[in-house]
Here is the input.
Amino acid sequence: MPTIAVPRDALFEALGKTYTDEEFDELCFDFGIELDEVTSEKEMLIREMGEEKAEANDQKASEQVIYKIDIPANRYDLLCMEGLVRGLLVFLRKIEAPVYKAVLPSRPHRLLVKPATAQVRPFVVAAILRNIAFTQASYNSFIDLQDKLHQNIGRKRSLVAIGTHDLDTLKGPFTYEALPPEQIKFVPLNQTREFTAVELMDLYSKDSHIRHYLHIIQDKPVYPVIYDKNRVVLSMPPIINGDHSKISLSTRNVLIECTATDLKKVLNTCNRCKTVRVLKIEYSVNFFLKA
Here is the structure.
């Protein structure tokens, strides 16, 4: 059962009501989720490192109250504060359940799939979020939601991997390809020089986070890679995005690409990324192809 951590005061502000811990616990029980713990960033840091080490590291952890909430494994829509607030407000009959639809733009982007991708990750789904205005809080929530989806419905990226990109730094049409690793070269996220895919596997074998995903494609004869029209690499899923198209607080249009070995789960995952309530979506477009 996944757990999310949300700031209590921000949660209550979004719900339009202040609760005691006991009252909110009851609301969670009625809704079908569980308030697992009432804590703070400072308390979590002390628990993880010990009080002396935490103070020695001069970590300026916040003392704001954090609710840690257990979410049912099949409720991927509740894995961020925005989704949780939306669900609770619908449950409390304060808002109607939202209805989403894809609106075809006059000039839709194309994502072309090469046959070789069938050897490694055969499915790809994409969507565009337009006219977004990120705050630091909504940006952090967006990134955290991706991680939660990776770990849960994506089964640690083995079934589904998500890449998000600043669309304004790219040019379509896009291509989803699979190439021998020595032929893939790009500057990966938060790096300053170009690596081949072979070199990246060695680089990330020492990374405490990314090394856990290398086995998904490491023994394949070809690796998946997504390019834009100018052969700029968006990502080498499910390992790492390119640095060129990384999103930031100033990003206004986001391209989401999800690659997978399971079609049903990748469609579900992409829909979860699109419908975070805090994002102002002008239109979104789904398109998928199987090699």
